[in-house]
Specification:
4-stranded mixed sheet; alpha/beta; disordered C terminus; 246 residues; 2-enoyl-CoA Hydratase, Chain A, domain 1; EC 5.3.3.8; single chain
Length: 246
């Protein structure tokens, strides 16, 4: 497995054959702030540049108790406009994942809350450990309004209106088994290691299909075109190229 290395203190990118594994590193909450979002976006650019085959797969996972605990609210709410800019930055990341020319798998090895759940949902497949962690949209509990662009993502990804209501309006904390039963998560696994191993196996199965990544990505973009259209309507998205300047 080759270490490519994207801002090692924040995340790493490894290549195992034609499978790329993006890992959010450390034991923290992996809050989505300018540095982390910029690092993930940089890793996605590296994936595209280093992909030497028409067929590749991306797996995103994390170390510690959290997959991601959402936006870095301490940073985002420290001055006016930062929360809006951070939502636009996350939307840009979502759009780039949707546009990536390969299948994507989220190996959720810990809590995925708010923006962290949105990050997971931006992948094609979600695998989750069942011994620890919740999928949880916390906005009702912390009194935040979910921006429209993310509501569109939920409508595209969670077809059952009752389940969407449970997730968004009841702020349900869903275990891996609960989320699997509701069709949000594709499979549940006994541990973090087992979840990543299952993601790699799924990636290998997908590679055997020898699909053309460009065609795969374009079909996904059509499937999730409403999400991409919302991104185009967000003027702030066009202004966010390098988040470190915020």
């Amino acid at each position: 497995m080759d270490l490519i290395g994207e801002k090692k203190e924040i995340c790493t990118l490894e290549k195992k054959g034609n499978i790329f594994i993006l890992t959010l590193t450390g034991s923290g909450e992996h809050r989505l702030n300018p540095d982390l979002i910029d690092s993930i976006r940089s890793a996605l650019r590296t994936v595209c540049a280093k992909s030497t085959s028409p067929s590749s797969v991306l797996i995103t996972t994390a170390q510690g108790k959290f997959f991601s605990n959402g936006l870095d609210l301490a940073w985002a709410q420290s001055c006016q406009q930062r929360f809006k800019l951070m939502c636009s930055a996350l939307q840009l990341l979502v759009s780039e994942l949707i546009s990536l020319p390969m299948p994507t798998i989220a190996a959720v090895t810990g809590h995925a809350s708010a923006g962290g759940m949105i990050l997971a949902l931006s992948h094609d497949f979600i695998l989750m450990r069942k011994d620890r962690g919740f999928l949880y949209m916390s906005e009702m509990d912390i009194e935040l309004v979910i921006p429209r662009q993310f509501m569109v993502l939920f409508k595209c990804k969670i077809g059952d209106a009752i389940v969407r209501q449970e997730v968004i309006l009841k702020a349900a904390k869903l275990t891996a088994e609960m989320a699997t039963a509701r069709g949000i998560v594709h499979s549940a696994h006994d541990s973090a290691e087992a979840t990543v191993d299952a993601a790699v196996r799924l990636g290998e199965e997908l590679l055997k299909r020898k699909w053309n990544g460009d065609v795969y990505g374009k079909n996904r973009m059509v499937l999730l075109s409403e999400v991409l259209e919302e991104s185009k309507l967000d003027k702030d998205v066009e202004e966010i190229k390098t988040l470190s300047k915020l």
